Structures
1.
Amino acid sequence: MAQQSIYLAGPDVFWPNATELGNAKKKLCQKYGFSGHFPLDTELDLSGLSPVDAGLTIYRANIALMDNSDLIIANMTPFRGPSMDVGTAFEMGYITAQKKPVWGYSLDGRLYNNRVEGSEVDSNGFTIESFAMADNLMMVGATDHQGGLLTKTLTENMENHLHVFEQVLKQINHNI
């Protein structure tokens, strides 16, 4: 059986130590017999490009990484709000559309509706979905359909992050 490759999605690329975190995740992937692909792995020359063209170049490079991956592990920890990173949500949807397994984890074990203001409606009167899930039902559904989701209530530091990530790798190994 050929070594499976994993696209490592999440807002990790925005962390101050993004490269270090990505390398540590890839090393853990190797430990469990996988090849990890972190979005910052692509060596792109963005010099001379407008911000829009630079963004589109990164988009195309990440699409290529996902196309060449067998599955995804997505860091679904809330980012810049009560829900997961929107780019990560797109990546999970893209992989789901390819019928590849979607695995996720969150360092925030609270339910989505407990992270959003109010209990049934927000301050604008909009209903807050309350399905006892870690995030939006479509995102949790993607992990439930072909992979799995692990949630832990931990502080967001690299050691905790890598511990939870390794637990996901162990679950994937167990299910192969």
2.
Amino acid sequence: MDNNFFKNIEKKTGVNMKDVFDLASSLQNANFKDEKTVRSVIRRVSQIANREVSKETEDKIVESIVTEGKQLDFGTISQMINKK
């Protein structure tokens, strides 16, 4: 992809694309049945997005992923974080 494309995304969102790519890379072999791993990912995504996630919201996300088997992706986490 064109480097300008990513720079435009960074400008519009304030999210550093290197952080996003680093996170995506770290997720490739992560164990999403492990609560500690899922909590770590949620905290990292909230940090990258500069959004605070309440303990209640974090617990709901963890439950839906670890217990209910929902997919862990940026869309899922983003939707849950933005439901306030």
